[in-house]
Amino acid sequence: MPELSYREAVRDALSRAMREDDDVFIMGEDIAEMGGSMGVTQGMLDEFGPERVRNTPISEMALAGTAIGAAMQGMRPVAEIMYEDFLTLATEQIVNQAAKHRYMSGGQLSVPVTFRTQGGAGWSPGAQHAQQLEAWFVHIPGLKVVFASTPSDVRGLLWSSIYDDNPVVFFEHRTLYGLKEDVPDELEPIPLGQARVHREGDDVTVIATGRLVHEALSAAQEAEGEGISVEVVDPRTLQPLDEETLVDSVKKTSRCVVAHEAVTRMGFGAEVASVIQYSAFDWLDAPIERVGAKFAPLPFAPVMEEFVVPHANDVLAAIRRTVGRNGN
Amino acid sequence: MRVAKVEQKGTLSDADLRDFFREMLLIRRFEEKVEERFRAGELPGFLHVAIGQEAVAVGVCRALEEGDVIASTHRAHGHTLAKGTTPNELMAELYGKLEGCSHGYGGSMHLYDVERGNMGANAVVGGGLPATTGAALAFKFRGEPRVAVAFFGDGATNIGTFHESLNLAQLWQVPAVFVCENNHWAESTPGWQHMPIEDISQRAVAYGMKAVKVDGQDVEAVHKATRKALEHARSGKGPVFLAVETYRLVGHYIGDPQVYRSKEELQETRETQDPLDHLRAKLELSDDEVEEIDREVQEIVDASVEFAKNGTEPKPEDALKNIYA
């Protein structure tokens, strides 16, 4: 069983798909010789050549839109948007074009394109290089949205995204690229729309995405020492959402914390909280707690950045509040 | 890898041109009928007709080969008919019926006919340009002798997608043809207010792209220029920009009072720049001949309205289909 980092796991999924299938190719800014700003595509130029590991100019509209056009002709492009902040530049093409061609054509077209992107705080890039914008895309019918938190998940989910016949916006978290895990030799595709229970528990369910999955797992460990048994669930696919697994977990524990790095206001956790309160209202013993970034752009100074984004201790404090212990 | 098919078609015969005249007149009568039925309150949404630009649609689409694809604009009826969608299917779409070319999901600004090579009309100005470069990239990847053609107006040459798409197309030498229908108006804004240059083809030249100026009111000239552009693109020499001078002889949308241009100017343009008048004079068609063609196309248009009205209303809950593959 080889050990792969999250970064290598992304590369492995891309490379395997490209080895098996001439219709798959990757395109993006600085992905060829440089191997991508995060090093994800390092070495792929040597294996696949410049046609299929296609460097693009700094042109997010055309980068996204060209991938859409190639997908409409039956290819399976994976377009890398270097930072998710730059998704803003490609949003017209993703939201008005990729998400709607199938619908506007009355089902004649499909657009099997994957937009890979990454973001996340923790290294002081400032306000334009670390936002978490996944919730924007969950709001758009016609898109699928994935946010993977571990090497095995990122590999299996990326494979499924490439082979999904719909446009997928695929979020990776910058701080997870070095995270290592043993993964099977065989790539096991993970179906989109299937949550993962990382840790079982009886008292509180924490529903977390991206980096916050790991913060939640640390908080759960800590809570266990205080006698609180915490279940940690990662939806992994934000659209479609595996409501059943989330709701079943909360029906079991009767308490819920939602946690993500994006700002709390209008964040993905708001939707999850709504789903939970509607479907598990009679089971809830406490208000659903929400953990997310404070309502501020990301500041540069490390002390301010750390203050704005949530950490394990914020998740732990939320867990304690749900069981009525406010001693933080 | 298949070898690109490069055909040298001879000059057009009179019979070809008569056929073009018939199709242009069909588009004209179709658009007039659309105006009439819209004003009668039968058509939902809002509509942009292509009266005055028929020679561009017919000249370009008749030059295409089987397998070539187009992307169109909000002013799409002419392109769609010229690319082979039947008047019945188009009219049914405008009435929001299941028999429509987008099955009632698209409407006037989102006309699709994928089987016939129409990748869709776009209601976002410049929205279809990147996909045209992308479709051409797919053809290049697969070694298919196909060309992707984008229609867009002069107004679209100010938006970022235009510049990014032309830059990429030229950089990657993909088989695409960019047909700029310069009708001198971006909705209500005249060219001199939206573009600091007079010669729009300079914008393509800036990217090193082959650019050709074409008289868009002369269908023979449009056809000839398109054939050459397609041959260039299909044979791997890279994309071509066609700067097509044309005229919108009506408002931006049906009901547009056109307060931004004088009645005299509009009248003069109508009298001097009607592509049907030009072709009729060139072919020396008699009144009787024109009347006969006119009668025939009007019957087709009338029948399309009947077809559309008798079409099937979607069920409200059909709105939840076709969102995901």
Structure, briefly:
With 328 residues, chain A is an alpha/beta fold.
Global structural class of chain A: alpha/beta
Binned strand content of chain B: 5-15%
Q: What order do the strands of the largest sheet of chain B run in, or round the barrel if closed?
A: 2-1-3-4-8-7
CATH architecture of chain B: 3-Layer(aba) Sandwich
Number of beta strands of chain B: 8
Measured distance between first and last alpha carbons of chain A: 42 Å
Specify the number of helices of chain B: 12
Overall mean confidence score, pLDDT of chain A: 97
Order of helices and strands of chain A: EHEHEHEHHEHEHEEEEHEEHEHEHH
Poorly predicted runs of 5 or more residues of chain A = none
Number of strands of chain A: 14
Q: Strand portion of chain A, in percent? A: 15-25%
Biggest beta-sheet profile of chain A? 7 strands, mixed
CATH level 3 topology of the largest domain in chain A: Rossmann fold
Question: How large is the radius of gyration of chain B?
Answer: 19 Å
* Overall residue-averaged pLDDT value of chain B: 95
Span between N and C termini of chain B? 30 Å
Which chain pair has the greatest contact?
A-B, 43 and 43 residues
Protein model, in words:
- The complex is a heterodimer of chains A (328) and B (325).
- With 328 residues, chain A is an alpha/beta fold.
- Chain A has two domains: 3-182, Thiamin diphosphate (ThDP)-binding fold, Pyr/PP domains (Rossmann fold); 196-322, 3-Layer(aba) Sandwich (Rossmann fold), CATH 3.40.50.
- Chain A is built from twelve helices and 14 strands.
- In chain A, strand 13, helix 10 and strand 14 form a beta-alpha-beta unit.
- In chain A, helix 3 runs parallel beside helix 4 (87-98) and helix 9 crosses helix 10 (268-279).
- Chain A starts with a strand and ends in a 6-residue tail after the last helix.
- Chain B is an alpha/beta fold.
- Chain B has one domain (14-311): Rossmann fold.
- Helix content of chain B is 43%, strand content 11%.
- Chain B has helices spanning 14-39, 54-61, 77-82, 87-94, 129-142, 160-172, 191-194, 202-205, 219-234, 263-272, 275-283, 287-309; strands at 69-72, 118-121, 148-153, 176-182, 185-186, 189-190, 210-215, 240-245.
- In chain B, the strands form two sheets. In chain B, strands 2-1-3-4-8-7 form a six-stranded parallel beta sheet, sandwiched between helices.
- Chains A and B meet through helix 3, helix 4 and helix 5 of A and helix 5 and helix 6 of B.
